[in-house]
């Protein structure tokens, strides 16, 4: 397995130099989030990730065990979680009044990146808890927060999200789980949920399930969905709550995380949020989970890059085409071969560009949930609405590509289990499926976020790129600014053309959506790479002892613009080709 080393310098570069997080935390009034404090937290998080979680990554691939309804996590997972709780990590960004440390959510994201890159399967257990915490914080009653949120913040209990049922996945309007009102105001929840990540385990004494169900008499479809808190063990006395694990799934990857089938047999639950508005409330959880899943793409690219980069420097094979680089050796290290560097730079570009995108989104989240300025709230909400589906789908697609590149650098050894590269590929593949497939994210972006308001929310994104291009044509940036300006202008024009096509045939949205999302993703990452290049140029101009470090950022930016960004042209051509070339007999109405 690659030996994970937290990329602390790259994290600091993205957080402080590119995105100016220090000023951001001051503006939030987060006095405890000083540079020294943040660096200390990141350093300790890196130590925990490297020394505790990374060694368990390969062990976790052996999988969870299921025996007569009892789930046991891989060796060391429970003990690592106990260390995690003892270290106060679950409470980092929690609300102070419920036992949290009150630090910004964006700082929690930085720590989460390191933990999840070191061991994605383990990281999913506290990761799902985070979504449950956010949902309870926003929609729970004071009593619900005192009982459930405080335990989630302390880490004593973990949380899940229970949506999918055997007969329905994305189409949640088909759900059958029912909720019947009791005289005490609680509900009896009955139904079966499948694919529940971290759904059952031995790591915590209780699990708080956030469950969607239908109250009898509720409207059909998604308009009749309500949201409930259903603990595995009753909160008042610790007795079992008629929630049982029927089985755990046998999967391609993430074997260390128990993906459970859960049976609710009249389990006591508590309504959270308004009746019949559960899907709106659940989207809070889902949006948190989508950004968390986007991080999986970054984690896969980073971990695979670290393994492939080290191997490429050690593995000897053939000579450089331009002549021996290391004539004293029997062959040159494979890193001298241009195609190997192409794969490594692709991984690097995705990992570092993706990190900047996700950090930007989480900083916007800090603003959105703290500001009282309605105009600022409108702008940040629009930015996150557009960028969340892009981040989730684009970064998981390209992160999976990066994982495959890492395996390819190893050649035949990449296919052998003990190197750990094929595990990264297997663990990452799920990221394009859960929390909404790439196709679902694409429909959300193009249909719900962009065309529904005639591109108004999208314009908040393109304005940022416009201002950047207008203000940063100096310092050797022209080679990046010119194509970036061309692409962001084209982005708006293509959107309008697709909108006109959709007025004539709504299927044009579905036909174009995935290519539209990927097109949007390549442009979005181009902006962040241009921003990083500009930051690096400024640092060199101002004088630095890290000139080589900053030059590497500039070189990677040019690699991205010249070798990856042109993919957007392909997606443009495909998305504009229309729905007519997607004919299949099985999809036609039968007479």
Mean of all residue-level pLDDT scores: 96
Structural class by helix and strand composition = alpha+beta
Helix content: 55-70%
CATH topology name of one domain: Butyryl-Coa Dehydrogenase, subunit A, domain 1
Main β-sheet description: 7 strands, mixed
CATH architecture of one domain: Orthogonal Bundle
Structural account:
The chain is of the alpha+beta class. It is globular, with a radius of gyration of 24 Å. The relative contact order is 0.09. Strand 4 (178-181) and strand 5 form a beta hairpin. The N and C termini lie far apart (57 Å). Strands 3, 4, 5, 6, 7, 8 and 9 form a 7-stranded mixed sheet that branches. The chain has a two-stranded antiparallel sheet with strand order 1-2. It has helices at 8-18, 21-28, 35-53, 57-60, 77-86, 105-118, 120-139, 142-154, 278-314, 338-368, 374-409, 421-429, 438-450, 456-471, 478-504, 507-542, 547-564, 567-575, and strands at 65-67, 70-72, 157-162, 178-181, 187-197, 206-213, 226-231, 243-248, 259-271. Among the domains are: 8-154, Butyryl-Coa Dehydrogenase, subunit A, domain 1 (Orthogonal Bundle); 158-275, Butyryl-CoA Dehydrogenase, subunit A, domain 2 (Beta Barrel); 453-581. It has 18 helices and 9 strands. Helix 15 (478-504) packs antiparallel against helix 16.
């Amino acid at each position: 397995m690659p030996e994970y080393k937290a990329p602390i310098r790259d994290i600091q570069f993205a957080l402080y130099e590119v995105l100016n997080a220090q000023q951001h935390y001051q503006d939030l009034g987060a006095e405890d989030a000083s540079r020294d404090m943040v660096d200390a937290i990141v350093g300790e998080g890196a130590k925990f990730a490297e020394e505790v979680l990374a060694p368990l990554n390969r062990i976790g691939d052996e999988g969870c065990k299921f025996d007569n309804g009892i789930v046991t996590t891989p060796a060391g997972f429970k003990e690592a979680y106990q260390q995690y709780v003892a270290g106060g990590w679950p409470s980092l960004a929690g609300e102070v009044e419920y036992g949290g440390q009150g630090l910004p959510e964006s700082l929690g994201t930085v720590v989460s990146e390191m933990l999840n890159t070191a061991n994605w399967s383990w990281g999913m257990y506290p990761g799902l808890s985070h979504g449950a915490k956010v949902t309870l914080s926003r929609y729970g009653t004071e009593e619900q927060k005192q009982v459930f949120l405080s335990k989630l913040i302390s880490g004593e209990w973990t949380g899940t999200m229970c949506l999918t049922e055997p007969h329905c996945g994305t189409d949640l309007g088909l759900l059958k789980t029912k909720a019947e009102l009791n005289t005490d105001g609680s509900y009896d929840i009955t139904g079966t949920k499948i694919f529940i990540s971290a759904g059952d385990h031995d790591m915590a004494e209780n699990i708080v399930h956030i469950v969607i169900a239908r109250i009898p008499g509720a409207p059909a479809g998604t308009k009749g969905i309500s949201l409930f808190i259903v603990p595995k063990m009753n909160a008042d006395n610790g007795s079992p709550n008629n929630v049982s694990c029927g089985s755990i799934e046998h999967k391609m990857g993430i074997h260390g995380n128990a993906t459970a089938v859960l049976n609710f047999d009249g389990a006591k639950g508590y309504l959270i949020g308004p009746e019949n508005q559960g899907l709106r409330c659940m989207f809070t959880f889902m949006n948190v989970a989508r950004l968390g899943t986007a991080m999986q793409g970054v984690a896969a690219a980073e971990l695979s890059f670290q393994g492939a980069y080290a191997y490429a420097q050690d593995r000897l094979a053939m000579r450089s085409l331009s002549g021996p680089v290391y004539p004293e050796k029997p062959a040159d290290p494979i890193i001298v071969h241009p195609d190997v560097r192409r794969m490594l730079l692709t991984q690097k570009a995705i990992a570092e560009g993706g990190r900047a995108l996700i950090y930007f989104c989480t900083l916007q989240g800090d603003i959105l949930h703290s500001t009282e300025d309605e105009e600022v709230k409108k702008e940040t909400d629009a930015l996150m609405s557009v960028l969340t589906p892009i981040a989730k789908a684009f970064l998981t697609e390209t992160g999976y590509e990066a994982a495959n590149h890492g395996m390819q650098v190893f050649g035949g050894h990449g296919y052998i289990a003990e190197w750990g590269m094929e595990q990264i590929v297997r663990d990452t593949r799920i990221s394009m499926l859960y929390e909404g497939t790439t196709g679902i994210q694409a429909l959300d972006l193009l249909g719900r976020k962009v065309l529904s308001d005639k591109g108004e929310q999208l314009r908040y994104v393109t304005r940022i790129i416009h201002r950047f291009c207008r203000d940063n044509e100096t310092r050797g940036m022209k080679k990046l600014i010119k194509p970036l300006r061309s692409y962001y202008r084209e982005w708006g024009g293509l959107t309008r053309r697709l909108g006109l096509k959709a007025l004539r045939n709504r299927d044009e949205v579905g036909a174009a959506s995935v290519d539209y999302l990927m097109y949007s993703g390549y442009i979005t990452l181009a902006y962040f790479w241009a921003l990083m290049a500009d930051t690096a140029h400024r640092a060199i101009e101002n004088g630095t002892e890290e000139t080589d470090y900053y030059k590497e950022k500039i070189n990677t930016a040019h690699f991205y613009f010249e070798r990856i960004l042109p993919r957007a042209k392909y997606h443009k051509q495909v998305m504009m080709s229309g729905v007519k070339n997607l004919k299949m007999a099985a999809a036609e109405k039968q007479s």
